[in-house]
Amino acid sequence: MGFLKHLKELFKTEEDITEKDVFQRSDEKCEIKYENIVDDKNTIRKYSNNFSFFDEENKFLQYAYYDVELNDINYDQIDFSKIEVEHQIYFEFDDVLNKQSRIKAIYDNDMCIGYIPQNRLHDMVIRFANSRSKQVCGMTTYVNESEKRIQIGLAFYREIDKNTICKEFKLTKTTKKIDGESRQDNLCYCYIGDTVDIDYNYDTDTYIVFCGGLEIGEIGKANSSKILEYEEEGMDIKGAVTYLEENEKGNIECKVKLVIR
Prior knowledge:
Layout: E1 4-6, E2 31-33, E3 36-38, E4 44-47, E5 60-69, E6 90-93, E7 103-106, E8 112-115, H1 120-129, E9 134-144, E10 149-158, E11 165-170, E12 177-178, E13 181-182, H2 183-187, E14 195-201, E15 206-211, E16 214-219, H3 221-232, E17 237-246, E18 252-260
Antiparallel strand pairs: 1-2, 3-4, 4-9, 5-10, 6-7, 7-8, 9-10, 11-18, 12-13, 14-15, 14-17, 15-16, 17-18
């Protein structure tokens, strides 16, 4: 952890697709946060953190996969020592006239490093890529030089539509200490875009908010009561950190945005 890197894959709509420009990249990029992990010999490289919950167009992360094993890697044409992790990839059809054909994962200089497995992820990439309200991002997440393996991460974003409730909350009790653990200290490990989890506490009648498994604050009682209703109705609740600033007292203030569907 420590800094944000921007990546984004923007695809054309289905009606715009031609033989020459299927799934062409744009210069706009999705926002991700990462940290490299390497072994002693630097032959294994791993991505270790998550895609940002919101992209630059305020689409939210609906699904994310970080260990997609590429098929049919062309071992003779790839120098595995030069394949970096957290590197942007884009996609092309093997046969542009057949949407059910295999999808190539393209690295720099139009180099195909493998194929998306022909399972439901294959169909999801096509569906999200060809929609104006959705977005799919790709990047390398794992390289093993000795085993000649490459994995990629796929992030599927969608717009906040009329069927989605999206609200931002300023966290309360962020200076509280629990069993010697300081929420202020925990906030120091948070970054804007980090995914949060919430858990209803029946003793306080509030939702406790966690970032990276650490408590960072609470949502007030009135708002927690309403969110609990949504949860009891079976609605899906996801969220992320959207604001982190130090106030005049030197304490970190935090806001989170919840997406409820």
